[in-house]
């Protein structure tokens, strides 16, 4: 199969969808990889390294996109829709629930849209989301700590406190991969950490992992409102796979937070869990202030640490890419139920229920289309 790797064009997105090691794996299996020139530079991989690994370097985005399968990191931006072609297999993060225009464009061009974030194993885990959630969760605590500094607009709190001065309070809503990794770093920084989740079993697991280093709370509007009133930093880390994020934090709750406190809404890629995170920010201009609270809502947080993130992402995507390239997407997905769940658009239909619901579009069962 011919596989294209375009250069990412989102603001400060320095990741790339394949490392030279990934090229070697695919080339050795008989596939051809076409990498757009300088696509890997932001992650520290040169064109020469890709060539030595067996890739062909192409000079523009059109050539990288004009292949049977395209692998990317971020969802295509409007400037990239013109590259869609009939039957293209697009294997990338798609986050379609908050993206009506992208969903329409994929349907219109009969793109086989396989979303990293909805590939799901029988134990419900999301293997192609996990490493980036690990990165974003760890970053969320350190970014929150930075923006709490007075010179960055925050209330001037050191999360660890010092002897004689109390510690800062961090509330994490959603105790999955992002939440757990945010907690690890926040605990390491010495903060007073509370994790709120809807799943009692998950709360038990978190209690087993962290013991008395955290407080756990069942998610409901009262616990969230109470926790926010006292929080210096609140991290949004809820996910309902494929769906638009639920708005669990109302504007009134945000107004009750202390002046200069900080929100990091990691779930912004699915639309965000705060009523006040109504816009996505960028690494260039990452925060805005509303009701005296700093809001950070960057949808590609791992793009800031591209070397770590590119290697972490491709460690998990390459085995799936190899299955698609070796067998074709139909057989690969029929043989592997986890990959089948990744298909969000196919043959002009939306094949992921939560995405169809988010846009009021007809849902088609992928099993009726993949034969
Ligand atoms: N902004 C960025 O750059 C990045 C964003 N993300 C996003 O972060 C979000 C979280 O991802 P993961 O931690 O991997 O998901 P996950 O599936 O591991 O965890 C989600 C957690 O939310 C909990 N939850 C569901 N409904 C809830 C509710 N009503 N109240 C409280 N908790 C609730 C679930 O029980 C689960 O523990 C996703 O939207 C993901 O796409 C991930 C990586 C990078
Ligand atoms: C998960 C995601 O959206 C990211 O890593 O940018």
TrEMBL record:
Record carries keyword Oxidoreductase: yes
Q: Which GO terms describe its molecular function?
A: alanine dehydrogenase activity; nucleotide binding
Q: Which residues of the sequence carry a binding annotation for NAD(+)?
A: 133, 197, 202, 219, 238-239, 266-269, 298-301
Query: Which ranges carry the Alanine dehydrogenase/pyridine nucleotide transhydrogenase N-terminal domain?
Result: 4-136
Q: Does the keyword NAD apply?
A: yes
- The record places domain Alanine dehydrogenase/pyridine nucleotide transhydrogenase NAD(H)-binding at 148-297
What is one term from the GO cellular component aspect held by the record? plasma membrane
Which biological processes are named by the entry's GO terms?
Answer: L-alanine catabolic process
Entry annotation: catalytic residues: 95, 269
Question: Reaction catalysed by this chain?
Answer: L-alanine + NAD(+) + H2O = pyruvate + NH4(+) + NADH + H(+)
**Residues that bind substrate, according to the entry?**
15, 74
Keyword set for this entry? NAD, Nucleotide-binding, Oxidoreductase
UniProt pathway annotation: Amino-acid degradation; L-alanine degradation via dehydrogenase pathway; NH(3) and pyruvate from L-alanine: step 1/1
- List the EC numbers from the record: 1.4.1.1
> What NCBIfam families does its record include?
alaDH
The entry's family comment says:
Belongs to the AlaDH/PNT family.
Which protein are we looking at?
Alanine dehydrogenase
Gene encoding the protein:
ald
């Amino acid at each position: 199969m011919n596989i294209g790797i375009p250069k990412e064009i989102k603001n400060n997105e320095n990741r790339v969808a394949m490392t030279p090691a990934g090229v070697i794996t695919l080339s050795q299996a008989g596939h051809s990889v076409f990498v757009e020139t300088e696509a890997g530079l932001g992650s520290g991989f040169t064109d020469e390294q890709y060539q030595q690994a067996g890739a062909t370097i192409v000079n523009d985005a059109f050539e990288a996109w004009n292949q049977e399968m395209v692998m990317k990191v971020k969802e295509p931006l409007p400037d990239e829709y013109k590259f869609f072609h009939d039957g293209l297999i697009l294997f990338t993060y798609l986050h379609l629930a908050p993206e009506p225009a992208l969903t329409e464009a994929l349907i219109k061009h009969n793109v086989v849209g396989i979303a990293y974030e909805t590939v799901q194993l029988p134990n419900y885990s999301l293997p192609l989301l996990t490493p980036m959630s690990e990165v974003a969760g760890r970053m969320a605590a350190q970014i929150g700590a930075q923006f709490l500094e007075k010179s960055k607009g925050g209330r001037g709190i050191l999360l660890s406190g010092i002897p004689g001065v109390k510690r800062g309070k961090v509330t994490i809503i959603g105790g999955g991969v992002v939440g757990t990794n945010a907690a690890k770093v926040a605990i390491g920084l010495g903060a007073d950490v509370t994790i709120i989740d809807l799943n009692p079993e998950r709360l038990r697991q978190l209690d087993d992992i962290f013991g008395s280093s955290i407080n756990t709370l069942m998610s409901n509007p009262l616990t969230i409102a109470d926790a926010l009133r006292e929080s210096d930093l609140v991290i949004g880390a809820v996910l309902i796979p494929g769906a638009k994020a639920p708005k669990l934090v109302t504007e009134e709750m945000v107004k009750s937070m202390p002046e200069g406190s900080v929100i990091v809404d990691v779930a912004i890629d699915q639309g965000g869990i705060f009523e006040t995170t109504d816009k996505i920010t960028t690494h260039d201009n990452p925060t805005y202030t509303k009701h005296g609270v700093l809001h950070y809502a960057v949808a590609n947080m791992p793009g800031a640490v591209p070397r770590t993130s590119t290697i972490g992402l491709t460690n998990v995507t390459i085995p799936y890419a190899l299955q698609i390239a070796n067998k074709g997407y139909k057989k690969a997905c029929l043989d592997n139920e986890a990959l089948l769940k990744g298909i969000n658009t196919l043959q002009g239909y939306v094949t992921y229920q939560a995405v169809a619901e988010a846009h009021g579009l007809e849902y088609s069962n992928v099993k009726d289309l993949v034969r």
